[in-house]
Design brief:
With about 200 residues, the chain is of the alpha/beta class. It has nine helices and six strands; from the N terminus they run ααββααβαβααββαα. A hairpin with a 2-residue loop joins β5 and β6.
């Protein structure tokens, strides 16, 4: 197993990839974007959160999850004991789909390499996938998020905890919000269990 990168080296390598993404024209989403929304947060995070794609606010500001969904995400993370500065946040696609439509498969494929590099460099203990697109991409399952959530899935030496996208909670109310809260607590418990083993060199 290769030695883990120092946080400074992770930042440097993530910046190189972000610079490449900033000029990407591999799919049609590049034509309508204001900003590439690459990712943000702690490059040495135990938890990485992966959403679907940028919305209007994110496209304007160049940061992930800064609109209504982002504010709810921040609150839910805080309920589980995380600050945004503690985690790393990204999306399946880095450019806003027009009208906030679902990303198409060719768009997901065009961005996949960036996401793979982000996961590899951040090297989180737990990846929390928000909604169908990120959950299906990582887990390679056609099952919907309603059935996937509430469980922990081993994934390339890490753990994936799927949950609803915060946008679904804005539409679905307190019931969906509470389910996300439960999944956040589950992710927290997985990190707590994995951290001692990782420190002993037993977690891969």
């Amino acid at each position: 197993m290769p030695d883990p990168l120092m946080p400074e080296e992770r930042v440097k390598r993530l910046r190189v990839i972000a610079d490449a993404a900033a000029t990407c024209s591999a799919c049609v989403l590049a034509k309508g974007r204001t900003n590439v929304v690459f990712g943000a947060g702690n490059p040495d995070a135990d938890l990485m959160v992966i959403g679907e794609g940028p919305g209007k606010d994110e496209d304007e500001q160049g940061e992930p999850f800064v609109g209504r969904s982002g504010r709810l995400l921040t609150d839910l993370l805080a309920d589980a004991g995380w600050q945004r500065a503690d985690i790393y946040i990204s999306n399946v696609v880095k450019c806003r789909p027009p009208g906030n439509r679902d990303p198409q498969q060719d768009e997901i494929d065009a961005c996949k390499g960036y996401l793979v590099d982000q996961i590899r460099l951040v090297d989180p203990l737990v990846v929390m996938t928000l909604g169908n697109f990120s959950s299906r991409l990582l887990l390679k399952r056609a099952t919907g998020i309603t059935k996937l959530r509430g469980h922990v899935y081993p994934w390339w030496g890490r753990h994936v905890v799927p949950t609803f996208h915060p946008a679904a909670a804005l539409r679905g109310g307190e019931k969906v919000t509470e389910l996300i809260r439960q999944d956040m607590a589950l992710a927290r418990s997985v990190v707590a269990e994995a951290r001692p083993a990782e420190q002993l060199g037993l977690f891969s």
